[in-house]
Each structure stands twice: as structure tokens, then as C-alpha cells.
Amino acid sequence: MLADLKKEIIPDENKKTKLGIIWLYEPSINFYIKTQKLDWLEEVNRSGVEGDFDFYYVDGLDYFKDEKKVIKEYKITHSYLLKNHAQ
Fold it and tell me: Do 69 and 54 form a contact (C-beta atoms < 8 A)?
């Protein structure tokens, strides 16, 4: 997922990408942010997908009332990478 996300971002030294996630993904995503030195991505937390995020990584599309652009569906893990339509 992080490789797919990196393909979608526009590098900006002054702004890190914000990723909204469900709590389940927090430990592994932060592990990769630290060990792979993913300086372009803000650390994630367990507060959920409510808020102003650039992208979302979730286990279903029912989290959103408005449309988000599905970038990729991961069938094995039943998860989705989405882009905020306002971006």
C-alpha cells in the first residue's frame, strides 16, 4: 500500500502527506515510516478516519458518506487506498 501511495503523491518539502487509517493499521504503518525513513508521510494515529486527510487506508468503503476516489483495492486483505476528492 505504501508503494502505491508514494506513486500518488506530489513531493513537497514543506508538506507531509496525511493518511487517515483505521486503528488496526497504525503499528505497521508507523513501523515502515520509521524504518524506511518515509519523510514524506506524517505518522499515523489511532484516532480514525474522521478529519482532513489527503489519503485513506481502510477495510471498507462504508466509512464515508461522500465519495472518495478509490486508488486501489487490495483483495487479499479486503482493504482500500483512497484519495480525498478535495485534493
Answer: no
